[in-house]
Amino acid sequence: MMPNITRGRRLGGLMQYLVGPGRSDEHTEPHLVAGDPAIMAWHDTAELDGAAAREIASALDRPRQLFGTEIPDGHVWHCSLSLRASEGVQSDEKWAELSSEFVEGMGFTGGGKADVRWVAVRHGLSTNGNDHVHIVVNLVREDGTKANPYRDRVRAQRLAGELERKHGLEVLEERGAGRGERSPTRAEVERAAREGRPEPHRKTLGRIVRAAATASENEAEFVRRMRRSGVLVDGRIAAGTSDVITGYSVALRPVAGERPLYVGGRLLAKDLSLDRLRQGWPDSPEHASAAAAEWIAAKRGRRPVAPGREVEEVTDQQWHELIAQQSQMSKYLSSVPVDDWATWSRVASETSGAFAAWSRQVEATPGPLAEVADSLARSAQVRGPQTARPKVGTPSMRGAAMLLSSVAHGGQGTVAQAVLFSQLRATVKAMRQAHEAVGDARRAAEIERVMGERLAGVRAGLPKLQPKTAAVADPAAAEAKRVASIGRRPFTGADLADRPGSVLPARLTPSRQEQDAERAGRGSDLER
Known about the structure:
Layout: E1 2-8, H1 11-19, E2 31-35, H2 37-43, H3 50-67, E3 76-82, H4 92-105, E4 117-122, E5 132-138, H5 152-167, H6 173-176, H7 186-195, H8 201-215, H9 219-228, E6 232-237, E7 245-251, E8 263-264, H10 265-268, H11 274-278, H12 285-299, H13 316-326, H14 328-333, H15 341-362, H16 368-379, H17 398-404, H18 414-437, H19 441-460, H20 475-486, H21 493-498, H22 512-520
Antiparallel strand pairs: 1-3, 2-4, 3-5, 4-5, 6-7, 7-8
């Protein structure tokens, strides 16, 4: 539940807006769901019009007018309480309960002091599909004293978290677990619609950056993979230096007539800030120098300085070796304490990156793989202290992300992908069990949903693996044996996608952004 607080002086203007059509005609059937007893006795839950809005505003403002109490920053306190679209629509009765407990929890009613006058207005879903309610409070109490809004934003966040847990609502990561995932703004949603994109830039960029970061074994490769994915990259150079990079921003290529919309890594997600990403890469003067060279080349629109494995096709032998490495993950996770959030967050981030990399290669528009990546990314936001650098030899999903980044550029057929998918699914199941073990029921339920509804569809499009199959050790041999038995060429990505009911597109080809980046990288201003 997301509280958003504003202050002002015009009760009449605010009420007229709340019962009006809204900025995009999104307000429908405005009505009260809760309020102080006197106002609710008069207006109840009937649909409101302009006349009713004026009457309510007048009733709310009466204590201030009667006592002449003035509050320098404004006596009108307004807070919208919003739920994510994924939580569905609540009843009026539930919103009344939440609103009343929120107002009391903020200290505006009860507690031995005179109450304030307040109402909660509901008028349909937002343009983003979020169910919400608007709470309007007159900070002048019934006896003319002032309600104290000191540190109200901090108090509202804490109280919202308490109400989420009490009423079984989704506990927001950025508050309940010290995590950080920012919802798209109205401007971002409107821009995506204007440009004909299926989702706001921030969501697309988050998956691209996470996929690139997870698949990269060092920072320089990370920069090159982002550029190869077609995004514009701008490294932030520290003041007084020419080669010290302290942060970065990325943008999708704009349509004609629009300027690039750059988003900082930290605003994509806390664990995508450069400081956090660097904790997972080698730290040495040589790596820092190589990374700085790539950041500067990207900033100035030059070719990559030292292209690496991101431009190479993955060989069959590399597939075998990396899949064997991934098989160690389940055994490793069984030894990780459920309260070791540094480790679980790292694994969630890497697994999210693997699904994001796969989605980038095979989903023309964000589909089930992208949804799984987004869900796991919410589990990746660290609780409390930042993660420590993983020990050398610790199992990782980086290899899986690198493999899945290559499925459109050679590499194994669908049997090997099925083996890798099985291992990814086992990792996701382990994360769900960890959430359950610490009582994070909402997160566990969300992971269970994407596993049951979305991953099942992906699995149906992949070859079935026989129990105790040798494919884990040698997927290529299993594929060759199966092909020989039916007398046809090996499966390709196109074969997988052409199956009736497949969730994957008809071709496993580089995304449009990658193709644009490849062409632009052959001699022009890549980043500008």
